[in-house]
Amino acid sequence: MFEGLTQFFSAIVAVASWSALFTVAWATLLGIAVGMLPGLTATLGLALLTTLTFKLPAGDAILILISMYVGAIYGGSRSAILLNIPGTPANAATSLDGFPLARRGLAGRAMGISTAGSFLGTIIGMIALASFAPLLAEWALSFQSYEFFWLAVFGVVVAGRLTAQGDPLKGWVSGFLGLLVAMVGQEAIYAYPRFAYGVTDLAGGFGLLPVLVGVFGFTEVLWVMKNPAYQAVKDATDSVVPRVREVLQHWVTIIRSGLTGTFMGLIPGVGEDMGSWVSYALARNFSRKPEEYGDGSIEGLMSAETGNSAAVPGAIIPVLTLAVPGSAPAAVLLAALFIHGVRPGPLIMIENPTFVFEVVAMVFFASLAILIYGLALTKPLLLILRVPYLKLMPIIFVLCVVGAYAITSRLFDVWVMLGFGVLGFFLRQVGFPMAPLVLGVVLGPILDVNLRRGLVLSDGDLTPFFTRPISAGLWILIAITFLLGSDWFVGRMRKLGRRFSPQRSEDDTK
Amino acid sequence: MARTDLATSLILIALGLGVLAESLRMPRYESLGINPYTVPGIVPGALGVILALFGAIMLVRTLRTRGAAQAAPPPSAEAHPVRLALAIAATLGYGFVLVGWLPFRWATFLFVTGFIVLFESRARQRTRSIARIVGFAVVEGAVVALAVGFVFERIFLVRLP
Asked: How confident is the model at residue A1 (pLDDT cuts 50, 70, 90)?
C-alpha cells in the first residue's frame, strides 16, 4: 500500500514539468471541446490525436491521449445538459436529468454537479487503477494461450450483450463481424495472406485506426446529417460552483457509482456508456426519491457523471495489464501504446514497472484540469456549442480522411475508413452496436493466435480449454452470458418459474 | 425492422457460408508436415460457421415474429433521406475521387466549400442570400484547407494525401 503511494508520488514528480502541465492543459481543453461537439466522440478524438502524435516521444503522446480521453468524456456532459444531445454516447444518461435541470434555469448547477461527479469519479477510478493494475498484471502472468483465447471470446460476448440495447444477438453479430474483419491479411503463424486475393493492400490487413475513424467518425458525420439540426443554447446564468454540502450529501452515490463505473470500465469493450447507465440504474434503485429521476434529479446526474468518468481509468486497467481494451477509446489507447513501443500486457510490471504509475499520475493531472476548466471556463466553453454543425461536419470529415491516411501514408487506409464508415452507418441504422465490432477487430489476432497455439500445446486436445481453473471460470461466464441473452432460454426459465411459483400451485390445487 | 432483419439474416448466412467455403480452400501445408491444428483456415472457418448460425437464429426469430409484427413504422418526419444521400455522395466523392486526384489543399477547399454551399442553401430557415452563402463558404473552405494543411504538415509533421 505504502509502496504504491510512494510510487504514485514519485510518478507525479516525474510527470510534472512545465511542458507536461502545458500539454495537459491544451489536450484536456481540446478533449472537452471534442466531447462537447455532437459528431465528435472520445474515440474519434483519440484516434485523430494518435495519428497526429505518433512522431512525438512516447511519454508526451500518451499524456496527450489520456488528457484527451478524460476531457472528452467529461465534455460530453455539457451538450447533454444544454442541448439534450449527449456529446459522446457515454453521456446519454446525463441528459436524462441534466437537461430537465437546464430547462428549469439550473444549467449552471447541473454543470457544477457534473464537474464534481466527473472529477470524483475519475479520482475513484484512478485509485482503483493504481491499486488493481499491479495485482491484475501479476495474476495475468499465470494466463496461457487457453486463457487468452477465452478472454478474447469473453470480451466480444460480454461487450455484445451489454452494448446492444435490448437485442444481444445483434451485439454478438457485431462482435463476431469484428473478429472476421481482423482475419483479413497475413496471419501470425505462417504469414498466409487470408482473404487477400493477390491484392497487396489487403494482405496487409485492415488497420485498426482507419476502421475506428470510419465507424466512429464518418458514421457519426452521416448520422448527424441524417438527423435534424440541434438548437443553439441559451446562457447559463446561475453559479457553476457546486455547493460542498450538496456534493457531500451524495457521498454514498458517488462511491457506489465510482466503483460501478470502474468495474464496467474494467470489463473488456463495455466502457463508459455502460458505466454511466449501470451507475444510474443502481442509484435509482437505492434512491429515496426515485420518482425524481428523469425529471432533474441531482443524485441521478451525479451518478451518471461519476459512473462514466470512473470508467475511464477503469478501462485503462485491462489495456495496461492484459493488452485488452476496456472500451472503444481505450482500444485506440492500446493501439497508440503499441505504436510508441510500450508493450502492455502481463509483463508490464516487470518490463516497465514505473509506467503504470506514470499513467495514474497522467490521469490525476487530467482530472485536475477538468475540475479547473469546469468551474472556471463555463462561458467560453458555451461558444463551442454555437459552431453551426453544417460547417463543422465537412471539417470533421476532412480530419477523418487525414487521420486515416497519416499513420501509414496509404490511400488504401482512406478507402478502408470510407468503407467502414458507410457499413457502420447502415449497421447502426438497423440496430447493430459499433463498440463490439471494434473490440472484435482488436481481439481477433489474440483469439486467432492463442486458439491455435493452445491446440498445439495440448496436441489437439480441447480439455485444457475447459478444465484449467481460469479458463473454466471464463467459459462458464461466457455460457451464462449467452444463455441470459437468448430469448429461448429466458422464456423457458420464466415458464419454469411460473410452474413452481406458489401462486400457480395454489391455482392448480383449486 | 422485420424486413431489414430478414435481409440482414440472409446476408449473414451467405457471408458465413462464403467465409467457411473460402477457409476450406486455404492451404493446409500438409507437405510441410505442420501441426494440423494450426492451419490458417481454422479460425476464419469457425467464425464463418458462427456467423451463419447467428444469421439462421435471426432468420427463424424474424419469421416467427413476422405474423405478429405490425406494419413498418412510418418513416420519421425528422429524418432527412435526401440530405443523407447528398452527404454520402459528397463525402465519398471527396474521399475516393478528389483526394489523390487533386493536391490535398485544393481537394479540401473544393469539398468544404461545396459541402457548405450545398447544405446551407438547402436549409429551411435560410437567412442569407445564395451569393452571401457562397462568399462565406469560399472563405471558410480556403481557411480550412490551409489551416489543416499547415497544422498537419508543419506542426505535427504528418504527410498529407
From this structure: low
pLDDT exceeds cutoff 60 at A451: yes
Q: How far is B96 from chain A (nearest CA, A)?
A: 7
Which burial class, exposed, middle or buried, applies to B134 when counting CB atoms under 10 A from its CB (0-12, 13-18, 19+)? middle
Contact A405 B140 (CB under 8 A): no
A402 to B100: CB separation less than 8 angstroms, yes or no? no
Alpha-carbon gap: A60 to the closest alpha carbon of chain B (Å): 13
Q: Of B57, B88, B120, which is closest to A422 when you measure between CB atoms? A: B88
Report which listed range, A22-31, A161-170, A260-269, is most confident: A22-31
- How far is A431 from A456, CA to CA, in rounded Å? 39
Chain B residues closer than 8 Å to A402 by CB? 148, 152, 158, 160-161
Cβ separation B51–A455 shorter than 8 A? no
Give me the residues of B, 44-83, that contact A with CB < 8 A. Answer: 44, 47-48, 50-51, 54-55, 57-58, 61, 78-81, 83
Q: What is the pLDDT of residues A372-409, one digit of tens each?
A: 998 888 777 777 777 777 888 898 899 889 888 887 88
- pLDDT, position A502: 60
A241-281 per-position pLDDT tens digit? 777 777 788 889 999 999 999 999 998 878 888 899 899 99
Greatest CA span in chain B, whole angstroms?
Answer: 75
Residues of B in contact with A55 (CB under 8 A): 156-158
Residues of chain B scoring pLDDT < 70: 1, 66-79, 124-126
Distance between CA B107 and CA B161 in Å, rounded?
A: 10
Q: B47 and A390 in contact by Cβ < 8 A?
A: no
Phi, psi (degrees; rounded to nearest 5) at B103 = -60, 150
User: Which of B50, B61, B88 has the CB atom closest to A176's CB atom?
Assistant: B50
Cα separation, B115 vs A450, in Å, equals 47
- Distance separating alpha carbons of residues A221 and A214, to the nearest angstrom: 10
Length of chain A: 510
Query: Given B43, B83, B157, which is nearest A225 (Cβ)?
Result: B83
Interchain contact B119–A (C-beta under 8 A)? yes
Q: Where are the alpha helices (DSSP H) in A377-410?
A: 378-384, 389-406
Positive or negative CA dihedral for A240, A361, A139, A158?
positive
Bridge partners of A193, per DSSP, are: A186
Q: B80-114: per-residue pLDDT in tens?
A: 778 888 889 999 989 888 888 888 899 999 999 99
What grid cell was written down for A352? 516497465
Given a contact cutoff of 8 angstroms between Cβ atoms, the answer to whether A149 and A455 are in contact is no
A433: left (phi over 0), alpha (psi -120 to 50) or beta: beta
CB A326 within 8 A of CB A438: no
Type of residue at A78: R
In chain A, residues with a C-beta closer than 8 Å to the C-beta of B1 are 430-431
